[in-house]
Each structure stands twice: as structure tokens, then as C-alpha cells.
Specification:
Layout lengths: L12 H10 L4 E4 L2 E4 L5 H18 L5 E4 L3 E6 L2 E5 L3 E4 L9 E2 L2 E8 L4 H12 L7 E6 L4 E8 L3 E8 L3 E4 L4 E4 H4 L5
Parallel strand pairs: 4-7, 8-9
Antiparallel strand pairs: 1-2, 1-5, 3-6, 4-5, 6-8, 9-10, 10-11, 12-13
Protein name: Putative restriction endonuclease domain-containing protein
């Protein structure tokens, strides 16, 4: 005879934040469900550090702040609520002051691998595009020299661009021109 199934009750965002503060492992929160995050490779960490460093240098004297993978992003739209740990996040909103998470990024970047590619290209893309202040979402491959950019045009919606090999991308609102050599320095 089998055992009775237990119905799992969705976690509230308040309970998630409380549990996350006491946890040694990071978790993302998607509509009441909690998902543990795996550790990152050396290559992944170098790419995140390269991006963070260039973004910090470009924004350090202005109102923008740059965060790497330890700051949560909260997305609350209607009944849906999510907390992610983007690999890189830039916020320039003076009202984005919560100590545990941010809500108004202008740029998000995920360094993707074969195990995270589907989530980064579908779930996170759809969730991130709901953020009204978001101007750019970068998906940076850890396997090849490839940056995929989803760029918001306020009048025309979202545009997709691929940058490969020796390409350069410009982020004028951050006063930054970034080459793929900058992104992949010491990596690929």
C-alpha cells in the first residue's frame, strides 16, 4: 500500500525572504515555489567579474549602482511574484533602495550555460521584459563568444541582437562601449 501524497502549500514572499536570510544556499522564488541555485564555474565567475568591473567603472560617479549575483531582483506583477539572483544588475533609480532586493533595474545580465539556457531564454526573458525600467537584458554565453541582447525601444518594443567574436555593443545611457574582448578577457 502506497503512502498518502502531501499537498505542498506555496510559500509567501515574506516567508521566502526570512528563510533565505538564514540559508547557506541561495534560492530563487517563483510564484510560491523555491529553487536552489547551483554553484558557478570559474569561467562563469570571470565573465561576471569582467561585466561588473566595466559597468562599475562606467557608472561609479553617477546615480547608478552595479550588483553581481548576491543581490536579489523582485518582480511582482499581479498575483505573480518572483525573486531571482541575476548575475549582473544595474539600477539607476533613486527610489530603488530596499536592502535585500531591487525592483527597478535598467540592465540585467545572465551568464548562461547548457543547464541554465532554457530558463534564461524563456522564463527569465518573459519575467524581465515586464520590468518597466529595464532597457537591456544580456544573455552571455559561457561556452562561446556570444552575447545576446534584448533591447527595449520605448516606441517600437523589444529588439534582439547577437554579438559574436570581435563585436562591440554600446550602452549610451550608461556611457559605456563594451567589446567582446572586455566581456571574455581571460576566458575565451
Amino acid at each position: 500500500m502506497g503512502e498518502a501524497a502531501l499537498k505542498l502549500k506555496p510559500l509567501s514572499s515574506e516567508d521566502y525572504l526570512e528563510l533565505e536570510a538564514a540559508s547557506a544556499v541561495k534560492h530563487e522564488f517563483v510564484d510560491g515555489q523555491v529553487y536552489a541555485l547551483a554553484g558557478a564555474t570559474d569561467r562563469h565567475n570571470r565573465i561576471v567579474t569582467n561585466l561588473t568591473g566595466h559597468l562599475w567603472l562606467a557608472t561609479r560617479r553617477g546615480p547608478c549602482r552595479v550588483y553581481s549575483s548576491d543581490m536579489k531582483l523582485r518582480i511582482a506583477t499581479g498575483p505573480s511574484e518572483r525573486f531571482y539572483y541575476p548575475d549582473v544588475m544595474v539600477t539607476c533609480s533613486e527610489s530603488d533602495t530596499h536592502d535585500l532586493y531591487k525592483v527597478a533595474p535598467c540592465l540585467l545580465a545572465e551568464v548562461t550555460s547548457p543547464s541554465t539556457a532554457a530558463t534564461d531564454h524563456r522564463e527569465k526573458l518573459m519575467a524581465y521584459q515586464r520590468l518597466p525600467e529595464l532597457r537591456d537584458y544580456l544573455i552571455v554565453s559561457a561556452e562561446e563568444r556570444l552575447v545576446e541582447r534584448y533591447r527595449r525601444d520605448p516606441e517600437e518594443g523589444w529588439w534582439y541582437h547577437e554579438y559574436r567574436e570581435q563585436a562591440t555593443l554600446t550602452l549610451p545611457y550608461l556611457n559605456l562601449t563594451l567589446t567582446l574582448d572586455d566581456v571574455y578577457e581571460g576566458v575565451l
